[in-house]
Amino acid sequence: MKQSKIFILLFLLFLIQGTVMPLFPFNRVGTNIQIVPEFVFIVLLMLTFFGSPNWGLKYAVLFGFLTDIVYASVLGVYAFCLTLTVYLVYAISKWVNMNIAMTVLLTVAGVCMLEFGVYVVYLMIGVTDQQFDLFLQFRLLPTICLNAVFTMLIYYPFRRFFEKLSDGIGK
In this record, what's one Pfam family (predicted)? Predict the structure, then answer.
């Protein structure tokens, strides 16, 4: 039952970031701003920090492949980058005290690693030709801002939720 709650939560966030977020007027005519909501990634990090690292990595693989299937043209890139980033950020989190400031900082670092990893892989295989300075200016900075605000908004309720659930799912 507890696993189904986590799956439903992640799946709803997956739907929201893919269907509801494009309706907001972030991309006005004449601008090149690309805001990428990484809500599933942020909740996966919080599940890994405050719940079960094992389940966080399993869901990272699952939702990474789901993202590849639905949104990407190359299968496996997002799944690899998402899982690797969740693992690396979790490894760093074991060395620090996990309060709201460190959670936001690690989440921002994770979003940077994820976006940069996907960008580099897509650049190497020829899927994107966006210049690096434009990537930083028009994609990475707006993405960081949106996801940092989202992390601050969900920190307390999700931390309590995952700490409660972690008793039953095993660390």
Answer: MreD
Question: How many structural domains are present in the chain?
Answer: 1
Contacts of 125 by beta carbon, 8 Å cutoff, 6+ apart:
74
- Asked whether the predicted pLDDT for residue 27 surpasses 90, the reply is no
Q: Which domain holds residue 88?
A: 2-12+39-162
Q: Render pLDDT for 145-155 as a digit per residue (tens, 0 to 9).
A: 999 999 999 99
Helix and strand element counts for the chain (H, E): 7, 0
Residue for token pair 């439903």: 8
Which token pair is 14?
Answer: 């997956």
Nearest to 14 by CA among 76, 65, 58: 65
Amino acid identity of residue 125, one-letter, is I
> Angle at Cα 6 formed by Cα 110 and Cα 55, nearest 5°?
60
User: Distance between CA 145 and CA 147 in Å, rounded?
Assistant: 6
